[in-house]
Amino acid sequence: MKLGKSTPVDDPKTLQLADYIDQNALPAAPAQYNYDGNISAWGMMGNDKINICTCAAAGHLIMEWTNANGAMFTPADQDIIKAYAAISGYNPLTGTGDGGAGTLDALNYWRKTGIAGHNILAYAALAPQNHQHIMQSVYLFGGCYVGLSLPLSAQTQTVWAIPPAGTQASSTKGSWGGHVVPVIGYDANGLTLVTWGITKTMTWDFWNAYCDESYAIISADFASNNTAPNGFNLASLKQDLQKITAG
């Protein structure tokens, strides 16, 4: 399996979810929630052969959002590869330039240009290790775009969890590499994600230890008629987004 997430970039222009939510106005996130809709075939979207996880994760979220609205759209692999090539410089004909991509580069491309004909409205970073934020992002927006710095020990785990020996040796953060996944559900035991064509679970402790980026994604594919969820100031977010210069 391939990965493909570059080292996180601290960009001060990135909007922060905490600036746009009123915890007193928001409905409480349920104790457990899952948006998978019994999707039986997620597809690899090239991530078995190419370091394309930043775009494959986007493709899987598009599938999940459109499925939740009753008309699932599955991006073609060539459209996911086209987006990755534009973002990273990867050459599909020669296979050169397959060095992965940054999450912010992928998110900005998704917002401005679109992936497989689907654009997002905006994205906002979650506070690190904030369980309430990721639960609210899944519940309110139908998923979360998460960057992980995976350990080698994750290669053989059915459920991603911290081994009894802790986060040393083969469980050292980043010893395998960076990976982006969509989180589409959660419960008391952990979070449900999509990667390499299947759903998988990671424990909350694993997420605490290895997540180094996470973003709420605002998409018309999921937000019917662009209506803001209760307690979320979408109009203010879009105004701030317009103030950000390209780059």
Describe this entry's structure for a reader.
Helix 1 crosses helix 2 and helix 2 packs across helix 3 (103-112). Strands 1, 2, 3, 4, 5, 6, 7 and 8 form an eight-stranded mixed sheet that branches. The protein is globular, with a radius of gyration of 17 Å. The mean pLDDT is 90. It is 27% helix and 18% strand. It is built from six helices and eight strands. It has helices spanning 53-68, 77-88, 103-112, 131-141, 204-210, 234-243, and strands at 33-34, 122-125, 144-150, 159-160, 177-186, 190-195, 198-203, 211-218. It is α+β, with helices and mostly antiparallel strands. The chain starts with 32 loop residues before the first strand and ends with a helix. The protein has a single domain (17-243), classed as Cysteine proteinases (Cathepsin B, Chain A), CATH 3.90.70. This is Peptidase C39-like domain-containing protein.
Fold blueprint:
Elements: E1 33-34, H1 53-68, H2 77-88, H3 103-112, E2 122-125, H4 131-141, E3 144-150, E4 159-160, E5 177-186, E6 190-195, E7 198-203, H5 204-210, E8 211-218, H6 234-243
Parallel strand pairs: 4-7
Antiparallel strand pairs: 1-5, 2-8, 3-5, 3-8, 5-6, 6-7
Organism: Mucilaginibacter frigoritolerans
Protein name: Peptidase C39-like domain-containing protein
